[in-house]
Design a protein that fits this description.
The chain is mainly alpha-helical and 303 residues long. The protein has two domains: 115 residues, Orthogonal Bundle (DNA polymerase, domain 1); 144 residues, hpI Integrase, Chain A. The chain has ten helices and five strands; from the N terminus they run ββααααααααβββαα. It is elongated and about 70 Å long. Keywords: DNA recombination. InterPro entries: DNA_brk_join_enz, Integrase-like_cat_sf, Integrase_catalytic. It comes from Sinomonas terrae.
Length: 303
Amino acid sequence: MAQDKNVLFAPFGGQAPDPDAFLGMVLDGWGRQQRAKDFASATIRTRRSVVMSLVDFSGRYPWEWTLGDADDFFSHARAVRNLSHGTVRSYQGHIKLFCEYACDPHYDWCEQSAKLFGQVFAQIVTELNRVTHAQPSEARPAKRPFTQRELQDLFDLADLEVERILDSGRKGALAAWRDAIAFKTAYGWGLRANELRHLQVVDFSRNARAPYLGDHGVLRVRWGKSHRGSAKKPRSVLTVWPWSVEMIQDWIRNGLPRYGHPVTDLFPTSGGSIVGESHLIGRLRDLVDELGFPPGELVKSSV
């Protein structure tokens, strides 16, 4: 692919232009632009996947898309696939961003598509077909938080799992103990899954206004949720309950040393990495299922 300043040209020689190759170039260029804006690789892959989903659904390339193609795609997502309001809105945002990039004259993709295929890119997500976002929360009305009784049952069952593994002679008691502490930590300090799994022992510090909490009066969250491609947003969370301090102190004193020394991560694995998000969510679902909580009635936990 030859390059002239900021303009990219797709050389096909005397052969007929290859639409798949050209689309790949556009998507690769879009990926570079997003990386330059510091978007996460997972976000870039998701956006590319949504664009390709619309290509496959419509049977058309992006420079051939119409408003009708977008209407059919999003209508199918809601009416047939039963995707949530928020998910469809995020899909629309991804397609809108792609079209904005492809239509931008600074990248010259429209000029190239006109020369190669006789058609140009157009914005197909507009105020005419975009889902409105008028509420601060998009949670479904049927969702509700755990009650205090349910939370206590959940934590008790997580603790019981450790005893059951020990009594059976199976391996995995330490991992079960770690998971039980992780669930309580997520609740005690109001953490998201990624924030939780990246915690380290040094993230705790004293709170001068709550000296009775010792060295665990404040939790410094360094892997907070980023916003629009920015870096991770750090925040500090004050400790509320003394029981959470006792729990963490016991884990640091008696649990972490079993993984070997030195241990800096609060929730490590036996292999030396940090516990995976999918593992924690899977364990949480297992506990909820065993307790017989109504399916679909509980909000997604902080874990």
